[in-house]
Specification:
The complex is a heterodimer of chains A (452) and B (222). Chain A has 452 residues and is an all-alpha fold. The relative contact order of chain A is 0.14. With 222 residues, chain B is an all-alpha fold. Classes of the chains: A mainly alpha (452), B mainly alpha (222). At the A-B interface, helix 1, helix 2, helix 3, helix 4 and helix 14 of A face helix 4, helix 5, helix 6 and helix 7 of B.
Chain lengths: 452, 222
């Protein structure tokens, strides 16, 4: 049999493994091993990558730290305060709670850097309230899934870290470039939620109350401070992204530990309605105790233990694909499309289709090193292309069959996977519209870069 | 030398304590055979260790991962404070954490094997009959063992090479890189123990007629 036949058979074989429910990590790993045998690559190439991926730099360390930040702000009660604030601002509109859920995702994403953490945190917090508030539970679950996509676009972002790490681009520039596109994604999805809820008459309206807004705004001050700390540190170049992550973790741990006893003294409870809380008690969050810290960190370690091995095998996969000539093949195909826009849109199409069947990290690790140089060769700004690429990769989180956020939302809300697919469509339309806008208007990514 | 004698030669090389001897023995093809036996036997012993000490079964990998996580965060956080407040920075503050990250990630990966929380598309599997489910889980177990086997072989070679070259961690004195690298084959040995334990549990559930596939929860204990 020819090499091509072997490669096809191996690819079909691992696809069957995937359909049978074999973990994605093993699916990619065995594809790499199988192809390595066919093209005579030593297995050490793959095995060594399981170690080498860590020694390539300090930047990748921001990833576990921003995952931990997400868990800390959730456990400390800061995430709850951010969502309370979003609801008090948007609750008077039709679909206000759905829009608040998306806005809360945006705020949460500005401290954490993980799409699944954003979906899981906001989904588990606001799904019960949305169901109580007369929303369709499938729509509610789809809202959590879609809202989570901004988790990796609004800085800090795990996938920006991986992209910058792979292509040697300044991660702080990538973070800044993600601010406007991420905000546009939030606004686009809020518009979709508003239209769907207005058509269906979903949601219970609450009156617009300035005092409630001020109160919840005060309640969320620690969240705003953390957001400001991250953005200020990165934007001004005071910290590297990894250091910003470390500082945010330290801040969240201190806040959690200090607020716990203060909150006890004030006698406030997370279950108490906002109206019944005093202004004073809004200054402190629920916090956590020192013995709770290991269980919070343990959860973050679990998520890191899922994502990092996936990065390691994806890097090995990318090397194997290069040896196969995939780089030249895709490169020739994309280059053959023509100039600036043809390359841009062809790249977007490739990212979109690949995102439907692969997790976004492998998509980024495999395709970014192939597509980014071609994009640069036709004059697309590398930072702009990174944002376009990663917005597309983030949309992959909600495109079936392999949309990670859809699984996470299904898991935290209990709505079966296939039932929520229908309600993801309006959000997909909104996200794709924003994606094209960001692609066509480079200023959305480049305008606020500090050195331009 | 035959592959069997090469595999057997790995054992005295390990006990010789010489990184040069180990490197020579590990580079032979017989290392693959040795590693296969090591993965299966080590995994079985790890499984028995966990059975004998349930406390370790619940906490070992998780504790290592959590401690590493906190140390990483602490070093980086302190690095920033040290720089801004004391105009000072420990030279290892950017070079040691990536090694701790490696330790944390593979032990956490092993813990996820126990919890079965690695990402997968389980829609079809969940709707299979019990015999189909146990067959799919057996396939998983075989694939995990193969993963551990390859990882243990290559990481032991990597470790021996590093030790033989006296590689030091940048920015710190007297801290060898292989001290960190050696944790990778250890983590994968524990992982193979988890795989064996999970498969035995699945098989027992299948035979007793209890549900085989349960919903795994990230952050949960089961």
């Amino acid at each position: 049999m020819s090499d091509g036949t072997w490669i096809t058979l191996i690819s079909l074989g691992v696809t069957i493994f995937f359909m049978l429910g074999t973990p994605v990590l093993l699916v990619i790993f065995y594809w790499v091993i199988g192809i390595s045998f066919v093209i005579d690559l030593p297995l050490a190439n793959t095995g060594n990558e399981l170690i080498n991926v860590f020694s390539k730099g300090f930047a990748l360390l921001a990833m576990p730290l921003f995952i931990l930040t997400g868990d800390l702000i959730n456990q400390s009660g800061i995430a709850r305060r951010l969502s309370d604030f979003a609801y008090s601002v948007l609750g008077w509109l039709r679909g206000g709670l759905a829009m608040a859920s998306i806005a809360a995702c945006g705020l949460f994403a500005a401290i954490s850097g993980s799409n699944s953490a954003t979906t899981a945190t906001i989904g588990s917090m606001l799904h019960p309230e949305m169901v109580k508030g007369n929303y369709d539970e499938r729509f509610s679950a789809a809202t959590a899934a879609a809202g989570g996509t901004v988790g990796i676009i609004i800085p800090p972002s795990i996938i920006f870290i991986v992209y910058g790490f792979l292509l040697n681009l300044p991660i702080s520039d990538l973070f800044v470039a993600g601010i406007i596109p991420g905000t546009l994604m939030v606004l686009g999805m809020m518009t979709a939620a508003f239209i769907v809820c207005t058509v269906n008459g979903w949601g219970v309206l609450i009156g617009l109350s300035i005092s409630r807004m001020i109160k919840t705004g005060i309640g969320a001050w620690l969240g705003f401070f953390a957001i400001g700390l991250v953005l200020w540190g990165i934007y001004t170049g005071r910290f590297s992204p990894t250091e910003a992550a470390g500082v945010t973790v330290g801040f969240c741990v201190l806040v959690g530990l200090i607020c716990y006893p203060l909150n006890k003294v004030m006698g406030s409870s997370a279950d108490l309605p906002v109206q019944e809380k005093s202004y004073g008690s809004m200054f402190v969050v629920e916090g956590f105790t020192l013995p709770q810290v290991p269980s919070i960190v343990s959860r973050s370690a679990q998520i890191t233990g899922i994502l990092v091995p996936l990065i390691a095998v994806s890097v090995a996969m990318q090397q194997v694909m290069s040896s196969l000539g995939a780089k030249d093949f895709i490169g020739d195909f994309v280059t053959g499309m023509g100039g600036y826009y043809a390359v841009l849109f062809t790249s977007m199409a490739i990212v979109f289709v690949t995102g439907m069947i692969l997790e976004s990290l492998p998509v980024t690790i495999i395709l970014a090193p192939i597509l980014a140089p071609i994009a640069a060769s036709v004059g697309i700004d590398p930072i702009h292309f990174a944002v376009v690429f990663l917005v597309g990769a983030s949309i992959g989180f909600v495109t079936p069959p392999y949309g990670l956020n859809l699984y996470v939302a299904s898991g935290v809300t209990g709505v079966p996977y296939f039932r929520l697919l229908r309600y993801i469509v309006p959000y997909l339309i909104a996200l794709i519209s924003v994606w094209f806008f960001v692609a066509l208007v480079p200023e959305t990514a480049l305008a606020i870069l500090p050195d331009r | 030398m035959s592959i069997f004698s090469e595999a057997v030669a790995v054992i005295p090389a390990i006990f010789s304590g010489s990184s040069w001897d180990m490197r020579q023995a590990f580079d032979a093809n017989g290392m693959w055979l040795f590693s296969l036996v090591f993965t299966l036997l080590g995994g079985f012993l790890a499984h028995k260790f966990y059975e004998f000490l349930p406390f370790m079964e619940r906490h070992l990998e998780r504790t290592i991962a959590v401690v590493m996580y906190l140390v990483i965060a602490g070093i980086i956080f302190w690095g920033v404070i040290d720089r801004f407040v004391f105009s000072n920075q420990w030279s290892g503050s950017t070079t040691v954490p990536p090694f701790l990250f490696m330790v944390m990630a593979w032990f956490a990966c092993s813990y996820n094997v126990k919890l079965r929380t690695h990402l997968s598309f389980s829609e079809f599997r969940s709707n299979m009959p019990p015999s189909g489910q146990v067959a799919a889980l057996t396939l998983d177990a075989v694939l995990w063992i193969g993963f551990c086997w390859i990882a243990i072989t290559t990481s032991l070679r990597f470790t021996a090479l590093s030790a033989d070259n006296f590689q030091l961690v940048d920015g710190v004195d007297d801290v060898m890189k292989w001290w960190f690298y050696i944790t990778v084959p250890i983590a994968f040995t524990l992982m193979s123990g988890r795989v064996i334990g999970n498969w035995l549990e699945d098989w027992n559930n299948y035979r007793s007629g209890t549900p085989i596939i349960k919903q795994a929860v990230i952050g949960g204990d089961v």
